[in-house]
Design a protein that fits this description.
With 326 residues, the chain is of the alpha/beta class. It folds into two domains: 4-178, 3-Layer(aba) Sandwich (Rossmann fold), CATH 3.40.50.620; 208-325, TPP-binding domain (Rossmann fold). Helix content is 28%, strand content 25%. The protein is built from nine helices and 17 strands. The strands form four sheets. The protein has a seven-stranded parallel beta sheet with strand order 7-11-6-1-4-5-12, with helices on both faces. Helix 5 links the parallel strand 13 and strand 14 (235-238). It starts with a strand and ends with a helix. Bound molecules: flavin-adenine dinucleotide. Residues 213-215, 239-241, 253-258, 270-272, 274, 276-277, 280, 290-293, 296, 309-311 line the site of flavin-adenine dinucleotide (FAD).
Length: 326
């Protein structure tokens, strides 16, 4: 039996960097969950990621590398993970809180009837053999304690809640165990997937995110936000209003139905601060809000705020940054 199985997501052929946060959780829990730490790699063309994962210091590495898993289709990837779990019987599965990872986790938990804890910021074993976890609710205003009984558990840590584990063994290389993919009949298939090019760095990776909302009034001002993001080496994000209005692509949306991010710096421009938006950004280290309405809820969570019209504030900010950069 395997102790802890980490689901390592692969992006553009490489392990996603947030994999190291999952490793931190695994190493912390390995004292109370015996059986070692295993890594699961599921996808297609995984040669480079397999070489990377083999040096990370896990006890075993399990790979399902199959062309039918080339697209990030959750049902197919979950089927592969369910198959692996059937073979390995892990006590705990740790998956990333990405669109694919969170859905694989949910499908695995439902299929196996295992206990699922999502969006975990703290985790510890309890004397009765269960788990005690913290997870933020109400946009991060409240930390809820979630107790899970005896495992198996499926744990999805909140991005950036755990310090990345950088202690690769390097010299110790684990030989990958390759598993053939035996897909069940899937209820849904992915046909003709379209990759949407993201300009610059993605919001879930950026240390700085500057996001625009309904207050920008149209797509044009996002060009100014892009200029500022480039000067800061960051990414552009958006509220749902901006996405639903067709001003920017959906991959930029922050919030309940968008992405949950935790950058070092989050700058919200013309964003009211609705709870569904705050859920996605409240873990940022520093939040700066620019809003013409002093009573906008975003100021309730912001570390720094400017009550003012973005038309005046943001060009001046851009010019100051550009002057600093030149
Ligand atoms: C189930 C559900 C899921 C949702 N998921 C999400 C989600 O994932 N992400 C999300 O963002 N929302 C989500 N929403 C929508 C959310 O409730 C809000 O409607 C949305 O966040 C509002 O976006 P906004 O603040 O950009 O726009 P608005 O509500 O239009 O607010 C615009 C803000 O800009 C300010 N402003 C106006 N002009 C200026 C100016 N010239 N200079 C400076 N400030 C100005 C205004 O004072 C105001 O505060 C969801 C809603 C539901 C019901």
């Amino acid at each position: 039996m395997t102790g802890i199985l980490i689901v390592a997501e692969v992006d553009a052929g490489e392990l996603r960097p947030d994999f190291r946060e999952l490793m931190t959780v695994a190493r912390a829990m390995s004292a109370t969950v015996p059986g070692g730490i295993a890594i699961a790699l599921v996808g297609a063309k995984l040669e480079a990621a397999t070489r990377q994962a083999a040096r990370i210091g896990a006890d075993s590495l399990h790979v399902i590398d199959d062309h039918r898993l080339a697209d990030p289709w959750p049902e197919a990837h979950a089927a592969a993970l369910i198959q692996l779990c059937g073979e390995l019987s892990p006590k705990m599965v740790i998956a990333p809180r990405t669109i694919l990872g969170a859905e694989m986790a949910a499908r695995l938990a439902v299929h196996c009837r295992w206990q699922l804890v999502q969006d975990v910021t703290q985790i510890e074993a309890t004397p009765d053999g269960g788990l005690k976890c913290l997870r933020p609710v109400s946009g991060g205003a409240v930390a809820a304690t979630v107790r899970a009984g005896a495992g198996p558990w499926v744990v999805v840590p909140r991005p950036r809640a755990f310090t990345p584990d950088e202690t690769d063994t390097g010299s110790v290389v684990v030989a990958p165990v390759r598993h053939a993919f035996e897909p069940p009949v899937l209820a849904t298939v992915c046909e003709a997937p379209k990759r949407i090019a993201v300009e610059g760095i993605g919001i879930d990776r950026a240390q700085t995110v500057i996001a625009g909302g309904g207050g920008l009034g149209g797509p044009g001002p996002f060009g100014l936000l892009r200029e500022i993001a480039d000067l800061l080496g960051g990414a552009v994000g958006a509220s749902r209003v901006a996405v639903d209005s067709g001003w920017v692509q959906a991959s930029l949306q922050v919030g309940l139905t968008g992405k949950t991010i935790a950058p070092d710096l989050y700058i919200a421009v013309g964003i009211s601060g609705a709870i569904q938006h705050l859920i996605g950004c409240s873990s940022a280290q520093v939040i700066v809000a620019i809003n013409s309405d002093a009573s906008a809820p975003i100021f309730g969570i912001a570390n720094y705020g400017v009550v003012g019209d973005w038309n005046e504030v943001m060009p001046a900010f851009r010019d100051a940054l550009a002057g600093h950069a030149s």
